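Pasting as-is:
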Amino acid sequence: MKKALLAVLVYVLVVGGLLMTRYSEGLNATFDLGIHDQACWLVYHGLNPFLSSRGLQVQADHFSPMAYLLAPLYLIWDDPRMLLLVQTLVLGSGAIPVYLLARRRVQSRGLALLLACLYLCQPCLMFANFFDFHFTTLLSTPLLWACYGLEANDRRAYYAGLLTALCCSETAPMSMLGLIPLAWLRSGWRRALLTLLVAGCGLTVSLNSVRWHNNGVATQYTNLYSHWGKSGKEVVVNILSHPFKTFWELNTHDNREYLLQIFGPVAFTPMAGPLELLPAAPVLAGNLLSWRESQHTIRYHYMVGILPFVMWAACAGTARLEKRCPRRPLGWLLVIACVVGILVGPLHPEEWPPSMAARQQALLDVQEVISDNASLSVENSLGGVLSHRRDAYLFPNPFQTAAWGSRRQALVDQSCLGLDPMMPGAWRRSLSRRPVDYIITDPGALGGFPFIPPDRAYFLGETCASPDYGLIYARNGVAVFAKGSPRRRPPRVVRPQSEWWIQRQHLDEFRATY
């Protein structure tokens, strides 16, 4: 156990240190550190929990009681980096239940330690850790403790894991539904029935909570399966009643590559423990059948409901392989898998962005220029650092609605292909009417969510030409426009790119085709 704890410590120090560097250089975005930091900050200060960064109440986007559990941590350190550290600690500590699961299955302590290290080296774990912060990402470790509780017949660990998981996301009940067959086989029908009760109550409470906080409108994320039906019930019925269509939707090139990304870094050992892999089926199917491309890759946080069961199955599969082959080759197989996991994850040199120390100074300057109570419209790439306030909008909100609110269009906007820009006159009138103190942009970047590059250049150019906002800071890749400041000629990097309208026409042709 001491060596497993040492592995956790190494993970926390390495990944935590890199995350602090990324934050200081402004590499954390409004989507999603800014959203979650603003949620905790509003709860901590007892303010109306309306997220100006997202256009929703805290509990209207996702069911997230975790916001109220984490908010008191700002008493210790009132800074967005507190959330990054908590996430790193929680994800890293998941190696402990993995080690305990492995010790119950494999005879060799060395193999058990290697499995714990294999968990820490998983690229999907590190990608989730590096992809800003999400309450949902914290789901992984409670589910691992629930797996251990079921394996060891430890009721306290099992139910504590389930209840903690429910506080992280409304998707947790889907993983619990997958646990029901194993609960029946391992602990009898009573445990399975209680698991069903917890999952059913959790799903009902979470979905109705989202609906209530969203003024009677159901969760917008059902729209991720709009090609299957208009409601959650219709989606499930159509998936089950059209098995051939479902098969062909699952059997795509992107999905096959996604499965390879999941099982390759664990050396395909979960294939030898298929029963323990079964609880991953509901969430995995949800990812495979969604139209959102980010759910078909391990580079985001959508793996957190799958990874616990992949590691549980890896422990079971390794135990079976241990009985049939020598330990030394099996140990080397796990070592190679650890190395592969590091090489294909975010620690690979090609994944790490170039140093942006100059922008670090710019962010410090900006924080000195603007007051703590000022309202901002901030580009996504800078929003994670500047979200510690009540009014911190994702640019171009609130002047033009984009990726904001509970509309289906908000999900389309997040694909960076759905935004229809205002005409110049309408945009300048909106700039004049909206009471936002500062517009903060990152004009040197090649692109910026939720825009495509030509749309972004257009918006920046029109903002430069507006008589209502004057440029007060332009240095080290960051530009700040203040409401009511005298207008002056901006640097070239802030002005719109040429030929943007031609690029826009090419995008329109692409949309018409697809």
